[in-house]
Amino acid sequence: MNYLGFEWHKLKSRKWILVLAGVTILALPIVIRILTNLSYLDEEISQGQFMESAAYGFITYSSFYIFLPLWIIVGIGIEFNNGHVNLVVFNTSYNSYFKSKFIYCLLISLAFCFLGAITIVIVQLSAPFDVESSLNFYGVFIFQSFFTFLSISLLAMFITFIARNIAIAFVTYFLLLFADGMTFMIVRKLYDNELFYLPFHITNILYVKGGDKTVDNYYNFFQEPDSRAIILPFFLIIILSITYWDFTRRELKLLSD
Amino acid sequence: MIALQNIAKKLGNKIVLESISFDLYSNEIVGLIGPNGSGKTTLLNLIMGLLSPDSGTISHNGSIGAAVSRKGFFEGMTVIDNLKVFAQLKGQDYSEIKRVLDLFAIEYANSRFDKLSAGMKQRVALAQAFMGNHKLILLDEPTNHLDIDSIFILRSAIEARKQQGTAFILTSHVLTELEKLCNRVLFLINGKVRKEISSSEAEFTRLEAEYLKLSAR
């Protein structure tokens, strides 16, 4: 089966997806441009931090505040809600369905990465001063954003496959995100220890130091590689394995009218 | 074509199927008769491989098509785009879509699925099942919501595929429909096959009386 063609056909044939794509393509660059300019005008960031702030803002806003989770949870969850997953498994296999959803996550991560690069160009061209930035900056951003988006996508895919329901997956995702953030903050305050390996923090390790989300911590992974990032691929392999194991062993909801 | 041996299945704490065994051959149409909750849909889901039996084996050769529900389609997509999804899944050329659209007289291929009536959706579900060269097709209450013309179309589609060697398992509460189409019927009551009647037997024309006797009404 041509997984890419299969997922692409489903994406382009639904009106709500086209509407969501329009909102994502318009809203993210506008929001990031406004926020970066405001941060600079309010003297929260220096000229040297301007591009880093835009890059940091794009990854953070698209990953955690509705956009990327919406694409993944709704895109996959709807197929559990409407029984489409049963028909795909019946006509192909559990393995094929799982692969097609992995490809979907890759596709969405790539699209967000591409949109991110365009957003950064827009921010640079419309900056209130002459911004100097190198191709190297864009290269690093594309690497960091793609793998961060893929990590978040796989985490959202894991939650959706376990929940097998859009509403439950959404609530679980945001509860976990909240619990993760609170735990990180409380432990750092009380014990001066950074729990960077919490699920949502470990997915940030490629673009923010220690998984701690502040503009100041946005860094060039290639200049100052964080050795702890080695845990990220293992973490992703573990959640993918659990997702696959659960999906192939737990029976699907009975298909009937 | 397909052989079921000693199939048993529990859903939760409820025993849904017990000791189900039967064979089905090419060109054969087997009907399943039973009250709601007797295990007909569970049995079809087991044959589809969507559920695993707790015990027993199901073996078959050749691919299987199925219309066991109007679910599984994308409500916001047009009929033709939905069928393209299934053509890709089944590795079929898009010309196959035209064939099944013509077969079931579907003239609303460019309409959105959520705008269709239940009967129109049922025809799309049937078209999807008939797409490809399946050796066995499972139909769960296929005449549900269909108008009379569509029932005639379905009947001839089944007969035509039967002539080409396809076998069918179909469930229905319309006993006259089963009498017309089936070579054999199985009475599935409380999860067990209580009786099997072939079309060559005299009782075949008295399915209703037989059903009432078996379900002790």
Structure description:
The complex is a heterodimer of chains A (257) and B (217). With 257 residues, chain A is an all-alpha fold. Chain A has ten helices and no strands. The longest helix of chain A has 32 residues. Chain B has 217 residues and is α/β, with parallel strands linked by helices. At the A-B interface, helix 1 and helix 5 of A face helix 1 and helix 2 of B.
Throw out a few tags for this protein:
heterodimer, A: 257 residues, 0% strand, globular, B: 217 residues, alpha/beta, six-stranded mixed sheet, three-stranded antiparallel sheet, 7 helices, 33% helix
Give the arrangement of secondary structure elements.
The complex is a heterodimer of chains A (257) and B (217).
Chain A: H1 3-12, H2 15-41, H3 50-64, H4 67-81, H5 84-91, H6 94-125, H7 135-163, H8 166-191, H9 199-202, H10 231-249
Helix pairs in contact in A: 1-6, 2-3, 2-6, 3-6, 3-7, 4-6, 4-7, 4-8, 5-6, 6-7, 7-8, 7-10
Chain B: E1 2-11, E2 14-24, E3 29-33, H1 40-47, E4 55-60, E5 64-67, H2 79-89, H3 95-103, H4 118-130, E6 136-140, H5 148-163, E7 167-171, H6 175-181, E8 184-189, E9 192-198, H7 207-214
Parallel strand pairs in B: 3-7, 3-8, 5-6, 6-7
Antiparallel strand pairs in B: 1-2, 1-4, 8-9
Helix pairs in contact in B: 3-4
